[in-house]
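All the exercises in this workshop are built on plain-text protein records. Instead of coordinates, the fold is spelled out as a row of discrete tokens. Once this layout is familiar, the rest of the handout is easier to follow. The record below serves as our worked example for the rest of this section.
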Amino acid sequence: MDRASAWLRDHVVLVDSVLAAIVALLCLAQGGFYGVAAGLCSLALTAPLALRRVRPTLAGLLVAAVGLLQLRLVATPLLADVAVLLVLYALAAYGPRWASAGGLALALLGAGAVALRYFGSEGLGVLAGVALFAAVTSLASWALGSFQRVRRQYVDQLAERARLLEVERDSESRLAVTGERQRIAREMHDVVAHSLSVIIAQADGGRYAAAADPALGVSALETISATGRQALTDMRSLLGVLREGPGDARTPQPDVARIPELVREVRASGLDVAVEVEGAPRPLPPAVQLAAYRIVQESLTNVLKHAGPAASARVLVRWDTDALRLAVDDDGRGAAALVAPSPGGQGLLGMSERARLHGGSVTAAPRPGGGFRVRATLPVPR
């Protein structure tokens, strides 16, 4: 049935032409009985029905013109006059509003004209009855066409809404994929950049320290080993997300409570860094805790890479009533460290994106008098 309905909708001219031919054959028999003029009028009234849906206004004009000729040339009503009702329905259902209203007005005037032309001598009662019957059938045909117009518009609106929902769903899917790619890029950058920075700093320091004190070289190698293992664990967790979707639930994500541990790891790499926690910790969603940890991690990584030798840093984690505030200050090269990011860089931009994702903000700028400062604010849900 669905295929049949679709075929009928795709071949409206053919379907209407067949309908017009059937009606014409039925009406020609009756019209030809009353003469050549009646037969020609029957054919002319039914032929435009083939265009009733694709050209409703043209079909209505043709039927109206033939109807006027019929009043003058034919002395009796014709069975083909049913074409007036069919084309009136088509005007109301498929034609423009002005054509629909004009067709109804002409049909009502035609009802009175037909009654006067063919039943004027039958008396006032018959005249009024015929006029009323013709008017009521015209109104009914027009009302059915108007109902069909409303129904068709409703179906079109549903189809358009379904199309828009599909477009919106595809757009949301693309945005979700893009967001996930950005998140993975940030995670990859944080894991790789921080771990490699620590490893490089330890390797450089251990190479010179081992000549004077082999124990310092061993300590540097231990730090490199621990940092490499932690990076490998983080990478496996991240790649597990790519393979399985939800990731490995057994591996906890870093949170605010692990920031002091992060500072100890960076201190072991040779950077003089201290951490201070103010206020009472409050519950935060895991995603916000991970963002706070990564912001501090990225800031310390930038200190290792850009602050220069003999630099020191200070990390402040402050729990306020409305937000978690993070601060990372160093006394390194300051404005000289504010270099243009390399293509594909995810550092300061990644920190800002993480904070904005949770309704927060990040500012990073050289400090007056030297050094660099990073400030981050992450709202605390109430």
In short: The CA atoms of residues 57 and 96 lie 8 Å apart.
